[in-house]
User: Which sequence fits this backbone?
């Protein structure tokens, strides 16, 4: 790890220009130890007044410093946004969730091993260097939305649930604004080093949830170990039935792309229809139409298909499958 200066900010106005934000530090410190990130100055934001969950209209405003464990346990989240609570609890470990913050979780970097290994070419770490993952070990890589320049995935769980909930990210900085989570994380294209909609000097101050949707909330995460492992694939679902017909279907997918993936076509297909295996198979076909394997990760295509179908069966009261 290289030398850096450290400042503890007392207010949002007190953030030094050019400093790298540190919140829980659970991702940033690892990246600094591997020298993937080498900031010259750090600003600790954990004393800022951004650690409340409060009502906003019919929805909720979650401060960027709310810890993952506190958010998962919050009574309103557990009751009205259960998919979010479940996704948070599926992530990392108890100790990590006690430190990790809402803003830091959104901003966590990919777990592509070539990104972490500075001896390997990586367009995300070093634009124009190439991508050693292509033709390499690709078990955890993307099957949707990848490009010729990068096949890394966004690894988080929380953001997958937030995508299904139509969350919005509140940003302070030179241009204060709100950005739908759908537009926050970026697909790689030919600029894989640009991962989010944040600009220099920006600070995430909150995540805002719209009014809750009553219905069945599910988060299904498939991983190599039962805990303390990132998703191979995950499915966040909010499904509401009315008289035997699906009248709300929000589905987001993790572990498969550089951002939490959502496909409005499959939601349109499901809405207004009665649950059936034939319908769910059709939805899976539609979802996977653009999917491309990258060698070792081809298993993710049938895995995502089975995970979607199992989640839909479970959420609509059909007998769950494995
Ligand atoms: C062993 C291990 C296992 C894990 N398993 C999982 C898992 O299964 N699922 C999962 O989802 N996650 C997992 N994680 C990742 C963990 O969730 C993240 O490390 C954590 O959420 C990051 O939050 P933080 O507050 O510690 O961020 P930090 O490490 O402090 O910061 C991370 C990044 O966010 C930026 N940042 C932080 N706050 C803000 C802000 N308010 N505005 C703008 N930028 C900001 C920082 O500059 C930095 O670039 C795991 C981590 C470890 C170490």
Assistant:
């Amino acid at each position: 790890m290289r030398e850096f200066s450290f400042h503890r900010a007392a207010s949002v106005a007190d953030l030094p220009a050019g400093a790298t934000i540190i919140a829980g530090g659970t991702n940033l410190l690892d990246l600094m130890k591997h020298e993937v990130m080498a900031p010259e100055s750090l600003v600790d934001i954990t004393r800022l007044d951004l650690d409340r969950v409060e009502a906003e209209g019919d929805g909720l405003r979650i401060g960027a410093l709310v810890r993952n464990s506190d958010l998962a346990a919050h009574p309103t989240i557990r009751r009205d946004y259960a998919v979010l609570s479940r996704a948070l609890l599926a992530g990392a470990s108890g100790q990590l969730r006690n430190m990790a913050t809402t803003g830091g979780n959104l901003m966590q970097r990919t777990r592509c091993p070539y990104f972490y290994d500075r001896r390997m070419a990586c367009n995300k770490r070093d634009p124009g260097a190439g991508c050693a993952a292509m033709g390499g070990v690709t078990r955890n890589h993307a099957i949707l939305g990848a490009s010729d320049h990068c096949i890394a995935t966004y690894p988080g769980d929380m953001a997958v649930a937030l995508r299904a909930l139509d969350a919005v990210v509140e940003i302070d900085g030179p241009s204060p604004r709100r950005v739908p989570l759908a537009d926050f994380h970026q697909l790689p294209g030919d600029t894989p080093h640009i991962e989010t909609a944040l600009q220099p000097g920006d600070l995430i101050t909150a995540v805002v949830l719209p009014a809750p949707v009553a219905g069945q909330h599910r988060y299904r995460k498939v991983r190599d170990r039962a805990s303390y492992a990132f998703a191979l694939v995950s499915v966040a679902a909010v499904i509401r039935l009315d008289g035997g017909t699906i009248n709300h279907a929000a589905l987001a997918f993790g572990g498969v792309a550089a951002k939490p993936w959502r496909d409005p076509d499959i939601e349109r297909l499901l809405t207004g229809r009665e649950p059936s295996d034939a319908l769910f198979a059709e939805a899976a076909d539609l979802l996977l139409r653009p999917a491309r394997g990258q060698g070792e990760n081809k298993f993710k295509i049938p895995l995502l298909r089975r995970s979607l179908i199992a989640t839909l069966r479970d959420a609509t009261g059909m007998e769950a499958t494995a």
Remarks:
- Residues 112 and 152 are 6 Å apart (CA to CA).
